[in-house]
Amino acid sequence: MIRDETSAQLSRLLVRRSSFVRALAERPRDKRGLADDLDASRSTVDRVVRDLLDAGLVERADGLYRLTCVGRCALGAYDECLDSLRGVKAAQDLLSMLPTDAPLDPAFLAGASVHTSTPDIPDSAIRELFSSVESAERVYGVAPVALVGQLRPFYETATEGGTVVEMIIADELFDRLAATPDSREVIIEQLRHESVTLYRGEVPFRFGLWATESEAGVVVYTDTGVGGVARNDTEAAVEWATEQFETLRERAERLTLDSLDGAPEGE
To answer: In this protein, which residues make up the domain named Methanogenesis regulatory protein FilR1 middle (predicted)?
Structure first.
């Protein structure tokens, strides 16, 4: 409880005094320099510096105040939090389409670009997925649901340039695709493709997921199709998406033509 209170106090201090902390992150200053640069009264500067010293964020050396290692780390954590909150705000419409317990890491949203479908351009969001994978060297994907009409265009786009594709298909979705002649044909073609590896397994979330060597993304589905797509090229986003894929792959079953032969077939 004491640690929680201390963290809350530090958070409040950073929110209230971030301009002072950022100024000292740029370069050490004396109190007069802080007052002049931030257009603050001397009494305000005295109070802020005292609070920052007490919190261990600032130290005095050679008559100047500068950030401590604690102060720089705290400012970095504060900025990461702000980035995540901006990402959540930017993706608000997209997130509202997901279940409340969707395991989407806020770190993925920091710096993400969000594209939602519109009635006049219903395929605009899915084009973002195609744009991301068409020039990639490798693609990891997780498909909990799918639009049957997009299967062939997706695989053709992904493999056209020799991209290595690994895809995990949710059990329920695989059974449905295997029972549909057109979709079954696409699956067979991909199983015969030397650069494509398919798996089936349990997928505990309802959004699509992909990762390339330089970008990651999620696809949010609604009852009427693709609701939107979020793309992010930050290292944290790619690591998160790749980790999600690798965790599911460990428990998934690799598909072969023999395993497809055992799946239900449509009329």
So the answer is: 122-251
37-85 pLDDT tens trace: 999 999 999 999 999 999 999 999 999 999 999 999 999 989 988 888 8
Q: Where are the domains of the chain?
A: 1-75, 101-260
Q: CA Rg, the chain, in Å? A: 25
Q: CA-CA distance, 215 to 145, in Å (whole number)? A: 21
Q: Which helix (H) or strand (E) holds 60?
A: strand 58-61
What dotted CATH number matches 1-75? 1.10.10.10
CATH among 3.40.50.11030, 3.40.50.261, 3.40.228.10, 3.30.870.10 for 101-260: 3.30.870.10
DSSP state of 149: G
Q: What backbone torsions phi and psi does residue 111 show, to the nearest 5 degrees? A: 85, 5
Q: What is the pLDDT of residue 91?
A: 87
Q: Where on the phi/psi map is residue 134: left (φ > 0), alpha (ψ -120 to 50), or beta?
A: alpha
63 Rama sector, left if φ>0, alpha if ψ -120 to 50, beta otherwise: left
> Are the CB atoms for 63 and 27 separated by under 8 Å?
no
Give the length of the chain. 267
Q: What is the mean pLDDT of the chain?
A: 86
Phi, psi angles (nearest 5°) of residue 262: -90, -5
